[in-house]
Amino acid sequence: MRANDETHRVPQGLFVDILREASPCLILLDEVADYCVGAAAVSVGETTLAEQTISFIQQLTEAVQQVPGAVIVATLPASKYEVTQSEKGQEIFTTLEKRFQRLGADIKPVADDEIYEVVRTRLFESITPPDLPDYPQKVAKAYQEMYTTHAGEVPTEVAKGTYRDGIARAYPFHPSLIDALYTRWGSHSAFQRTRGVLRLLASVVGDLWQRRNSTTQTQHLIQPGRIYADRSMLCRHN
Fold it and tell me: What total of structural domains would you count in the chain?
């Protein structure tokens, strides 16, 4: 396959034999759509590297279906708008999505109830003091006690134990902030859901850190009211 790699052209009739020799094997393809969008600018004869790559994936997936013990796992964004706003990029995404849908199960890697952990592990190396590993739980308990004290002024669900668990899992963010971005904004086709949430919250954390010496407020959670979001910040992550 070296000659094909050097000329950027799809090898013909090789995949089944190679996979049979390699089986059992697991093939991982990550960020394929982003790669193909960039590859669309590379000419390969009368085609492009993106078209050659899509053809490569087509032959590879068909070969995987013929070889016991061969498995392919590929990741695609949840929406075509997470790849690019260009018509060509969205066309590439749609084509790839159809190719992989023929192969097998469509698995959503990030469920709604997992977004807290994803945000926390991607944005922070550590969120608790070394001597207080249960600090998020302590914060959650304090917030629930406050909500119980002011039961007539807050929604009824915030006083429930399940909401306290949500605060602990979402720490250092208030769950209402992440829920608003991931669930409400995420339902909009132009918002990039998981990636958009991560990028926007990263900007929020960076802004709060830059303003840490100029604010007199002390809060244990990053809440919607703590965010300073101008038009430029929102446009960068939309």
Answer: 2
